[in-house]
Design brief:
214 residues, single chain, Arc Repressor Mutant, subunit A, alpha/beta, 9 strands, 17% strand, Rossmann fold, two-stranded antiparallel ribbon
């Protein structure tokens, strides 16, 4: 059976569904209707049904959605039923913050290596993982299966490191650098431009409706 092409907008909403369903599970909620879920997520019930119908629907007429089942199935769609090994290239404040974020491991993302060019950081451990120098990166990649690399480097550093990662088998890059990487089509890149997100926040702040307007 040929896999359907799912729009980026739908894929972008899936982690949000997963998060809300996880909260419902923690609150012992067993089932929920699309209308009830729409009120919590501020997404229309119609949009929720359309999104989930891309993957089979999961709901029952007159019953709604089984929260645990839907949470599990969306986790599978997102690939969270697998384990991924990850490295972080760039051990500055952002890189160390990512390494310290324990929820990654709970979701199946295991940080197995941290790299930097600053010799003063050599051997410093973050959550038990020693920081290695980037001249050891290629050897590490050849000796370990790495699924994902997080790049928390300046623009030029990211552009230099990305081809090395790809050449040594890394197929997914989580890019925090202030640049769009030009890589082969079979490499998945997720760009996280923090400054752009902040600028969007600034725009929304400056173009919001005045409070109390009739």
């Amino acid at each position: 059976m040929e896999e359907r092409e799912i729009s980026k907008a739908v894929v972008k909403r899936l982690p949000r569904y997963y998060r809300y369903l996880g909260d419902l599970l923690e609150n012992k909620v067993e089932r929920i209707s699309s209308n009830e879920l729409s009120h919590q997520m501020n997404v229309t019930a119609s949009q929720i049904r359309q999104d989930l119908n891309n993957f089979g629907g999961f709901g029952q007429q007159g019953y709604g959605y089984n929260v645990k089942y839907l949470y599990t199935e969306i986790g599978k769609i997102l690939g969270l039923d697998k384990t991924y090994s990850m490295i972080i290239v760039g051990a500055g404040n952002l890189g160390q913050a990512l390494a310290n974020y324990v929820n990654f491991e709970k979701k199946g993302f295991s940080v197995i290596g941290i790299f930097d060019v600053n010799s003063r950081l050599s051997g410093v451990a973050v959550r038990g993982i020693p920081i290695r120098m980037t001249d050891q990166l290629e050897t590490f990649l050849q000796e370990n299966k790495v699924h994902i690399a997080a790049l928390t480097l300046p623009k030029t550093g990211a552009e230099e490191m990305a081809p090395i990662l790809v050449k040594n088998g890394v197929k997914a890059i989580w890019n925090f650098a202030h640049t769009d990487l030009n890589l082969p089509e079979d490499v998945v890149v997720e760009n996280v431009h923090l400054s752009e997100s902040l600028m969007q926040l600034s725009y929304n702040l400056n173009h919001r409706e005045p409070q109390g307007k009739e």
